[in-house]
Structure formats: C-alpha cells, structure tokens
Write a structure and sequence with these properties.
About 35% of the residues lie in helices and about 25% in strands. It has helices spanning about 20-35, 45-55, 65-70, 130-140, 155-165, 175-185, 190, 215-225, 230-240, 255-265, and strands at about 10, 35-40, 60, 80-85, 95-105, 120, 150-155, 170-175, 195-205, 205-210, 245. Helix 4 links the parallel strand 6 and strand 7 (about 150-155). The termini are far apart.
Length: about 270
C-alpha cells in the first residue's frame, strides 16, 4: 500500500546552498509519509516560484514577505507548515533569523553611515532580509531618497557575497543563516568579510503548503516536520543545516514583516 498516494512536489526558494538539505528533506518526508516526495531543483528559483504559484509544486521554503503576500490574497493561496529553529545561541531557540550587513575585511567601512555613496548589492526584490529590511532601516534613520551611490540586483545572497569578495561592491545585507552556512562550507570566508551591523531578529523564512493540497495531507506534513527532531534520522538531516527542530508558527508571527514592508515603501536604497 505504500506509495499508492500521488507524489508531492517540494522546492526551495532560498539560496542555492540550501538545495542539498532540501533534497534530503524530500527523501525523509517521502519515508515518513509513505508516498513519493520529489524535490524540484532543476530550475532557477524564479522558475520554481512560478511552478509553485501555478500549482505544479505543492510545498515550498520561501521568504516571509512572499509568504505574507500570498496569504493575504483572496482567497489565500498558501498555508504555513513550519519554520526552522536554528541551533546557534543567537537564535535563542526561536524560529527567527537576522540580517547581517557585511563588508570586506580590509574595507575602511566600520559602520552603516560609512557606506553612504558606495556600491551596494541586494539579492532580489521580494527578499525581506536583503531588500525590504535595509530600506526599512534606512527610512528609520531618515535616509529615504537614495543612500548608496550605485545599487545592483545580484539574484541571490550568494551572488551578492561573490560581488563583495571580488571587490565589485562595497557592502550587502545577508540572511544570517546563509552567511553561517557558507562559513561552515568555507571557514576562511569569515576572515574575508566583516559584519558591521546586525538587524533583527525577524521571523524566519517558513515552509509553506499550497492550499490546493488537501487538509489531511497538510496536517501529515506538519506532523512529520515538527517531530523530525525526535527521530535519529530526522535529527541528522536537520543537523546538516544547524537546525534543532521545526516549530509550528502562526500567520500573525509574520505581521512584523508586513509592517516593515509597508513602512519601507517610498524609501530608495
């Protein structure tokens, strides 16, 4: 009787370095649910996002603001499943993350005001950590009409970091979990960059399920994810990305992201 149910399709809209974990997660969920779970990784994230919106993908790991915008549609097109709780002490056992503003280690920049008029990159325009939160923070500081000299869209946090390391930009804002994961892969990286300011915490990018998926399957997915840390195999999979567990979250948890995006409207990088 196993695998008699139709396959579920899962994808990630996070940085590319999350893909190996997501592939293992799909494998784990397939075993836990007793049905095939396929990880869609053969397209760039922009195509994956369209596939999710078109109903060709059932489950996605996406940034909090894209989630909130889809949830606010009438009718809503997504429902929260869970959010990761990262292992490092700075997260205090909560489903949150930070935005780290980084420069090259040899840069003369020591604080955000030193970046006025310099070269900046953001990952992509739906990102809370890379795009909307910097606009919100600049607005709070009174910089609403354009703070940086030049601004480029890199396409991902990893790509923005690459521009920084090559000296093509002077600063960027990175999802703290992405920076930490890249630092684990390349320990020398943390000697090449320097964090000058940290913003947050913010509610962490959640795993979401499309509303076309039936209620019973949604709950089975939620149960499997929230109990992963109780299973030795599940703990091993979570440990690959320094995650202690998946936590249940509520839509209201993402209201702060909605508010910051509203307040950032009209603020130019």
């Amino acid at each position: 009787m196993r695998h008699s149910a139709p396959a579920l399709r899962l994808t990630s809209l996070q940085a590319p370095n999350a893909d190996p974990f997501c592939s293992r997660l799909a494998w784990y969920l397939g075993n836990a649910l007793g049905r095939p779970v396929h990880f869609v990784d053969d397209e760039p994230w922009q195509v994956r996002e369209r596939l999710f919106d078109d109903g060709a993908v059932d489950v996605a790991w996406m940034c909090g603001l894209p989630y909130a915008r889809r949830r606010d549609r009438q009718p809503p097109t997504v429902e929260l499943l869970v959010a990761p709780v990262m292992a490092q002490a700075r997260y205090e056992g909560c489903p949150v993350y930070f935005t780290d503003v980084v420069v090259r280690a040899d840069s003369s920049v020591n604080a955000l005001p030193d970046l006025r008029g310099t070269r900046w990159a953001y990952n992509e325009p739906s990102s809370h950590s890379g795009y909307w939160l910097p606009r919100y923070e600049l607005g709070r500081a009174g910089h609403v009409s354009g703070f940086f000299g030049t601004v480029v869209e890199a396409g991902s946090h990893e790509a923005a970091l690459g521009l920084l390391l090559r000296g093509e930009i002077d600063g960027t804002a990175l999802d703290s979990t992405v920076l930490e994961a890249l630092g684990d892969e390349r320990p020398e990286l943390m000697q090449e960059v320097r964090i000058i300011v940290t913003w947050g915490p913010s509610p962490i990018p959640p795993w979401v399920v499309a509303t076309h998926v039936d209620d019973a399957t949604r709950q089975l997915l939620r149960n499997a994810l929230t109990s992963m840390h109780l299973d030795p195999v599940g703990r091993e999979v979570l440990g690959d990305v320094e995650t202690t567990r998946f936590a249940e979250v509520e839509d209201a948890d993402y209201d702060s992201i909605r508010r910051m995006a509203r307040e950032a409207e009209g603020v130019k990088l």
